[in-house]
Amino acid sequence: MPSPLIESYFRSENLPQIWCPGCGHGIITRAIAVAIEKSGLDRDKICIVSGIGCSSRAPGYLDFNTLHTTHGRALAFATGIKLANPELKVIVITGDGDCTAIGGNHLIHACRRNIGLTTIVYNNNIYGMTGGQYSPTTPKFDKGTTAPYGNIDKAFDICNLAASAGATYVGRATSYHTNLLISLVLNALKNDGFSLIEAISGCPTYYGRKNKKGSAVNMLEWQKDNAVNISSASKMAPEMLEGKFLIGELKNSPEPEYASEYQKIIDKVMKER
Amino acid sequence: MTNSFKLMQGNEACVEGAIAAGMKFYAGYPITPSTEIAELCSEKLPVVGGKFIQMEDEIAGMAAVIGASLTGQKSMTATSGPGFSLKQENIGYASYAEIPCVIVNVQRGGPSTGQPTSPSQGDVMQARWGTHGDHPIIAICPSSVKETFDLTIRAFNLSEKYRIPVILLMDEVVGHMREKIELPDIADIEIIDRKRPNCDSDEYLPYKAEADLVPLMADFGAGYRYHVTGLAHDETGFPSNSYEVADKLIRRLMNKIEIHKDDIITWEEENIDDADVLIIAFGGVARSAKAAIKQLRENGIKVGLFRPITIWPFPQERLRELADKVKVMIVVEMNLGQLILEVQRICNNIVKIDGVNKVNGEIIYPEEIVTKVLEVI
Ligand SMILES: Cc1ncc(C[n+]2csc(CCOP(=O)(O)OP(=O)(O)O)c2C)c(N)n1
Ligand code: SF4
């Protein structure tokens, strides 16, 4: 029997989903559904937009207004939706490749505009859907099917990228730290401007196998052992932070949202006429 | 109400037409010779409560237009050569997911950066086949400022009626030419809106075609929670791996336009009745063709004009009829022979077919057409 959450927010007729056993994407998708439930938002006014990739298949399983677009372009489609009808709560689900490679330009400009989109990046450090090629977040020297001798590209820090491009709410959690993930997504939904939550996911099928990371459970344990909450990081010696990554709320500095700023222009020119 | 006379540019007439048609959203990226369209939209849209956004590139402009259309707003983007190339993937998305929108391409000399400020008609085939895969598309070509106004409205109407991206294929000549035009009273303009469902949300099948092969389209946010994808999809809108579903979908999309050809296709004919020579020209070049025909007629040469206004789908049946009446067809176009391929496909072995072509960035002058006619008769 499906749980009440699944019953209510998932399109049960489309389940089971396409993801491999042990994939982190399902856990993250469930966390988003829980956060939406807690937010109390009207589901008829929620749009979920995605690009292309394993991660971007999530909206098809969620019972909202859902739009599965082209690779990398989810934020640009979502920008059109939000500006055309600011009443809608627009959530974007994207992958590390979708969001920071082919869609990298849209990402920095959506951040810069501070348009009201809640973006969740499922970061599994690899191109899952196309079979394990390296992505802009594959760690240096790790392997992918197109980096058989090890990747020499430097990886993006998606949260730093978004924060410095102008996103007003930024946080990171993992498929292990689901309670944190839920609370970050919930806060992100409350921010009027552009929010980005990086959800570290695990792709045991390609990234895990190529890089000898063990089973799906081993990959979750890795997340547990290597994530440091920002609240404790300041108390830790630099040596202790080596090789670790930060989770938690990384930026929270609200600023006027793009679509409401545009509305002010409309109000002004209409009054002047 | 009195009609108003105004002196304006083709690009300006396009914006006036779009606003008259009910455009409420524009997203794009500036590029010569289409830039005035973006500039005017940024000025005029907020005045009617609409939205303008300058996106980071043309891909994003096309994407935002599709997103906005899904919320129920009539949406448009405008571009030229390089930008038109960038929009292609998302134009295919709009065609496959049946999202109404208007794409203006004010053609310039190409390929690549080419001749940014020079006229061209080099995108005839790109307008038809620019995106990958079999897909339906409508492209219409104005040849005057007034016609740009009318055809922009028509582009919106066709896109709403058939849930399809419509390309307004202009050229630099028409885009930048100034003419005094009479704007009709808004009340006299026919405006078509997409058909929306009014059934219960549980009963709504977003991709179930009506008798006219067009499905009803709900606005995002109106209470029908449905899925839109660029994957092969069935009537529910959800992706499907079935060969049958994929086949049925593409065939329906192509048929949706095929069965409404008579409503979609328009053209202009002039001096056809006794013509031995038929000049086929569209867009800005049709003006030179008319001047050439006048000159030739004064010298007793029986020349007529066939001007496709809808170039995709091409007015094939009418052209085939004309092939039985005339001896020679001359296709005049600012490219090295694109529309002529259609003419040859339809009329080969029935009449002699020749072309007047130019790709140096200059318009084709009437004398060049006259010379060709004298050469072939
Ligand atoms: C324009 C375009 N280029 C390439 C592809 C092929 N492609 C599909 S998904 C994908 C990568 C997805 O990776 P990511 O966004 O990290 O998502 P994941 O599958 O890992 O969840 C690629 C390259 C495509 N669909 N479209
Ligand atoms: S390939 Fe990787 S990312 Fe894709 S579903 Fe399988 S485990 Fe998940």
Description:
- The complex is a heterodimer of chains A (273) and B (377).
- Chain A is an alpha/beta fold and 273 residues long.
- Chain A has a single domain, classed as Rossmann fold (3-Layer(aba) Sandwich), CATH 3.40.50.
- Chain A is built from 12 helices and 8 strands.
- In chain A, helix 4 (96-102) crosses helix 5 (104-113).
- The termini of chain A are far apart.
- The relative contact order of chain A is 0.14.
- With 377 residues, chain B is of the alpha/beta class.
- Chain B has helices at residues 10-21, 35-44, 58-70, 81-97, 124-129, 145-162, 172-176, 243-258, 261-264, 285-298, 316-323, 339-347, 366-376, and strands at 4-9, 23-28, 51-54, 74-79, 101-109, 115-119, 138-140, 165-171, 178-183, 227-229, 267-270, 277-281, 303-308, 310-312, 328-333, 352-357.
- In chain B, strand 2 (23-28), helix 2 (35-44) and strand 3 (51-54) form a beta-alpha-beta unit.
- In chain B, helix 1 (10-21) packs across helix 2 (35-44), helix 1 packs parallel to helix 6 and helix 3 (58-70) runs parallel beside helix 4 (81-97).
- Chain A binds chain B through residues 11, 14, 43-45, 47, 49, 59-60, 63-70, 73, 76-85, 87-88, 105-106, 109, 262, 265-266, 269-270, 273, and chain B through 24-25, 27, 46-47, 49, 51, 53, 55-57, 59-61, 63-73, 75, 89-90, 93, 220-223, 225-231, 238-239.
- Strand 2 (65-68) of chain A pairs parallel with strand 10 of chain B.
- The complex binds thiamine diphosphate and iron/sulfur cluster.
- Residues 19-20, 23, 25, 54, 124, 128-129, 203-206 of chain A line the site of iron/sulfur cluster (SF4).
